[in-house]
Amino acid sequence: MNDYPINIRAIQHYMYCPRRFGLLEVNDDWAENAFVVSANLMHTHVHDGSHSFNSADGTISRSSLAVYNDSLDIFGITDCVEFVKCKGGVEIEGFEGRYRVKIIEYKPKPPKDGTFHKSDAMQVYAQKICADSMWHCQSEGYIYYTETKRRIKLPFETEGEAYYKELLGYLEKMRGIISRGNIPPRVKGQKCSGCSLSDYCFAKTGRYSVKAEIMAMKGG
């Protein structure tokens, strides 16, 4: 355990823009736009319990499962985990038999090439690391893009080592930002049109504070 546990969803914020991550985690800034609201509505439906069921083939699906990994000190909430009956699988506490574990993350739309966004895959990989340590398994990772209604299997079996190394790098950099309390500068060429924090994101000589800005406007 270390001083800075990382919520898995924050990894995507960092991958999109380190400055956005800093504004969220260091400065506690938050704002919503149409993209954020749309994603929130989708996940509200996913997490409302209607996706938890037992199928005729023995597959058990559970939404909104909390997962964690103590060695990396990361945690999060999955959209859906499927426990698929399999003789060569692992035992899951509370269930009879053995199961393969599948992690499914719901996202709005895939990239134009029809594959998957790397940041989406990294989020699922971090969930996989948690699931593997909790259930002593080698779980599979999938993304379901609601726009295309397609489930895409992620290449963790063949590229898992590269994903793990990349994840460790992100976590180290994220914890460095938090520990120093410094908000990174805007990255040259960063596309900010879809970012809900664009109004907060401008050059500052010192640490930006919403409270300080409000007090300054009031003459305090």
Structure description:
By secondary structure, the protein is of the alpha+beta class. The chain has a single domain (about 5-215), classed as Lambda Exonuclease, Chain A, CATH 3.90.320. The chain has 6 helices and 9 strands. It has a 6-stranded mixed sheet. It has a 3-stranded mixed sheet with strand order 1-5-4. A hairpin with a 6-residue loop joins strand 6 and strand 7. Mean pLDDT is about 85; it is low at about 30-45.
What does the secondary structure layout of this molecule look like, with pairings?
Layout lengths: L5 E2 H9 L1 H8 L8 H13 L6 E2 L5 E4 L2 E4 L4 E4 L2 E12 L6 E10 L10 H18 L4 E6 L4 E4 L2 H25 L29 H8 L3
Helix pairs in contact: 1-2, 1-4
Characteristic terms for this protein:
9 strands; 6 helices; alpha+beta; single chain; 220 residues; elongated; three-stranded mixed beta sheet; Lambda Exonuclease, Chain A; 37% helix; six-stranded mixed beta sheet
Low-confidence stretches: 31-43
Number of domains in the coordinates? Answer: 1
Q: What kind of sheet is the major sheet? A: 6 strands, mixed
Q: Which structural category fits the helices and strands?
A: alpha+beta
CATH topology: Lambda Exonuclease, Chain A
Computed CA radius of gyration, to the nearest angstrom: 19 Å
Oligomer: single chain
Q: State the end-to-end CA separation.
A: 41 Å
Helix and strand pattern = EHHHEEEEEEHEEHH
Q: In total, how many beta strands?
A: 9
Assign an overall shape: elongated
User: Helicity, in percent?
Assistant: 25-40%
CATH class: Alpha Beta
Q: If strands are numbered along the chain, what order do they take across the biggest sheet?
A: 2-3-6-7-8-9
What's the architecture, going by CATH?
Alpha-Beta Complex
**Percent range for β-strand residues:** 15-25%
Rounded mean pLDDT score: 83
